[in-house]
Amino acid sequence: MNAIIAKRVDSGTPDTTEIRDLATAAGYTVVGEISQSRKADPALQLGEGKAEELAAVVEQTGATTVIFDNRLGPYQTYNLGQMLPEGVEVIDRFTLILEIFGQRAQTRKAQLQVELAELRYELPRAEAKTSLAKRDEHPGFMGLGEYDESREQDIKDQISRIKDELERIEQTEEQRRERRRDSGFDLVALAGYTNAGKSTLLRRLAADLDVDENEGLHRDLDATAESQDKLFTTLGTTTRRADIEPRDVLVTDTVGFISDLPHWLVESFKSTLDSVYRADLVLLVVDVSEDIDEIHEKLVTCHDTLYERNEAPIVTVLNKIDKVDDDELAEKRRALSSLAPNPVTVSAQEGTNVEALLDRIDAELPDWEAERLMLPMTDDTMSLVSWIHDNAHVDDVTYGDQDVIVSFEARPAVISQARSRAGELRTTAAESA
Question: From which residue to which does any coiled coil extend (predicted)?
Answer without folding.
Answer: 102-182
